[in-house]
Amino acid sequence: MPMPRHFLNAAPDFFHLHRHLHLSYFFLFFLNIFLSHSPITTTAANHEVLVLFSWLHSSSSSSPPPPFSTWNSQDSSPCKWSFVRCSSDEYVTEINIQSVHLALPFPSNLSSLSFLETLIISEANLTGAIPVDIGDCVSLKTIDVSSNSLIGDIPASIGKLKNLEELTLNSNQLTGKIPAELGSCTSLKSLVLFDNRLSGSIPTELGQLSGLEILRAGGNQDIEGKLPDEISNCQNLQVLGLAETKISGGLPSSLGKLKKLQVLSLYTTMLSGEIPREIGNCSELVELYLYENSLSGSLPGELGKLLKLEKLMLWQNNLVGSIPEEIGNCKNLVILDVSLNFLTGTIPESFGNLTNLQELMLSSNNVSGSIPAVLSNATSLIQLQVDSNQISGSIPPELGLLFQLQVFFAWDNKLEGSIPATLSGCKSLQALDLSRNSLTGSLPPSIFQLRNLTKLLLIFNDLSGSIPLEIGDCKSLFRLRLAGNKISGQIPREIGSLTNLSFLDLSNNHLSGVVPDEIGNCGELQMLDLAGNSLSGNLPSSVSYLSKLEVLDVSMNQFVGPIPGSFGELFSLSRLSLSSNSLSGPIPSTLGRCSRLQLLDLSRNQLFGSIPVQIFEIEALEIALNLSWNSLTGEIPPQVVALNKLSVLDLSHNKGSEGDLMSTFRNGEPCVHL
Predict the structure, then answer these.
(1) Residue 140 CA to its chain's centroid (Å)
(2) CA distance 458 to 507
(3) Which residues pair with 215 in a beta bridge?
(4) Which stretch of DSSP H or E encloses residue 335?
(5) How confident is the model over 328-378, as pLDDT tens digits?
(6) 302 with 280: CB under 8 angstroms?
(7) How far apart are CA 345 and CA 328, in angstroms?
(8) How many other CB atoms sit within 10 Å of the CB of residue 1?
(9) CB–CB of 309/332 below 8 Å?
């Protein structure tokens, strides 16, 4: 049974002594073996052989991996061993083991390797704690034991390593606080501790590390407190990463002193307050990640002084005010994301200067005004997302000059006018969503010439006219939603050429005529919604070829004739709604083969005959079974009792007998209409 943690902390000397006594016996055992087989005298090199060899064999559960075949206890020196380098005097100066599965504890007695400068054992499944005597390895310049399974605290004794330049402990299971003693490692340039289980605050003593270039401690979700002002004393700092922690309070204005800072990563923390104007003094800044915080106030215009800035990520904060025109001076910007804030004002015209900009993300704000035509000058744009704002006016035809644009989202705004035919110039366009606006006019046929377009969503506008025959040319489409418009005419048979289409929603328009048989060629369709139109004729039996179909809704149309028995071949179907048509004939018993059906609505038709027993044997029916307002006859089969998961059962307004329906349901059962 392991000792309680408080006992371990209370008596460290006991366990330190016990461990070293054990290792001493172990060491003597190997020493006797070594001397009994070798005529040479024991030297410092021999000693290094024994220290390293005994560590490699410290686990009785497994043999050393094949790459260690050169490690021989009979050698007079380890200098020819794999993963080991030595000085000209044959003293070990470097151990470099990477991506080799060891499953060994952290090496002990390293302090006896007096000339060791580099210790790298990464991604090797090292276990146990980092021993305190690591602080006695006075020559160490580099320690990298990242991506292992180390536990316990970071030893404060590391603070004794005056020559240490790189300390890399990331991606382990280390706990406790960051030792304040690390502030004594006066040569330290890189301190990498991310993705552990560290807690406590950032020690102010780290501000003493004037040569520090990299500080990364993100992913330690229990690190808390404010970002200390003293960090600004690290005048050589290039990377400061504390993302995904509980760092709170405001960003200190003293960060502006970090003239060499290139990356500031403080996303997904508990930061609040305003972004200090002094951030504009960090003239070397390339990447600024402050998203998913509680930052407030307006965006400082001083951001425009960051001429080397490439990534500005401020999404999901509480930022207000307008977007500064000065940001247009950041001509190296590649990504600008200020979505999910409370920003107002207009999109700055100066953004037309951002010729390197690839992603402009302004979604979910209160931005108003129009989309500036000068955005067409930002010819590197790949993503333009301005959805969920108050943007008005028309879509500038000039956007068709954005040849590299792949995503254009402007849904949920107040856009007016027609969809520019020039958007067909966006040859790389993959997703276009202009839903929930007030767009008028017809669908430009040229849009369907976009060979890479996979998603076209235009729901809830005032679009009219017919669906262009050119739709069949857009064979890359797999999601097409035109619901909630005033589109008229027939569904063109060319739609059958869309063999990749998985989602087709043409509901709530003014479509008429028959559904073309070619719809059965859309073999990837999972959802087909034609509800709320004036479609007529028979339901095409070719729909039964759509083996992947999960939702079929053709309700509120003018379909006549029987329900095709072949619909029973739609084995993936979970929702089938044929209500409010003029369908006649009996309910096909083959529908009982649709074993995944959760909702079946055949109400408000002219169906007659008895209800097939097979319908009541569909165990998946949980949402609704609605057969009301037909001319069904006969008694309700006793199998209805099996539908005990059903929320709504409506058999009302038919000509059949109610039978013993009510007695088959008890408390908490479905809502039943007779």
Answers:
(1) 39
(2) 12
(3) 191, 240
(4) strand 335-337
(5) 999 999 999 999 999 999 999 999 999 999 999 999 999 999 999 999 999
(6) yes
(7) 15
(8) 3
(9) yes
Distance (Å, whole) CA 477 – CA 431: 9
Residue 2, pLDDT > 50, answer: no
C-alpha closest to that of 360 among 423, 322, 326, 312:
312
| Phi (first) and psi of residue 246, to 5 degrees | -105, 25
Nearest in space to 388 (alpha carbons), one of 360, 367, 406: 367
Residue 345 C-alpha from the chain's centroid: 30
Under the banding of pLDDT at 50, 70 and 90, the label for residue 320 is very high
Determine the pLDDT at residue 14.
30
| Residue whose entry in the numeric block shows the structure tokens 């302004």 | 362
pLDDT at site 58: 86
Cα 371 from Cα 393, distance rounded (Å): 8
Confidence label for 413 from pLDDT (cuts 50, 70 and 90): very high
User: CA–CA separation, 616 vs 68, rounded Å?
Assistant: 68
pTM > 0.85: yes or no: yes
Instruction: Give the pLDDT of residue 38.
Output: 40
Other beta carbons less than 10 A from residue 226's beta carbon: 14
84-105 burial, b at 16+ Cβ within 10 Å, e below that, comes to bebeeebbbbbbebeebebebe
What's the pLDDT at 571?
Answer: 97
> What is the rounded CA–CA span in Å between residue 261 and residue 251?
15
